[in-house]
Design goal:
This protein is mainly alpha-helical. It has one domain. 70% of the residues lie in helices and 6% in strands. It has five helices and two strands. The chain is globular, with a radius of gyration of 17 Å.
Amino acid sequence: MAFLKGERIVADEQKGMLPGVAGIAMWMLVVATVGVFGAINGVYVGHARYVVLPVCTMIVIGVFGLLRLKRWGWAMVLAGTLLLSFGYGFMATTMKQPGFWVMSLLNLCFFLYLSRTEVRERMRI
């Protein structure tokens, strides 16, 4: 809601978490959990396990910061969504499995949603 102050319109400062941010946080926790269990059970071949574990750890730490509306948590989840989008796109092209494109585009949509000004304005330092 905006009100007139002097000659410019000033928007009320919004507080609280948007529902989309909470949904993205839950999704990222599920993706990180699946990644960790996959790395533990040997689903990833070679050195991929050592790449998946730090990325999943970064995502989980970032999600807990995002749920507290911290800017560092938002930045970590934003980077995690972009990394996952690129990773799924890479897997879709190398493994020739079009199902990974769906995951890639979904994470790209999450990245674009988290980049919106409404989301950024609600984050605390």
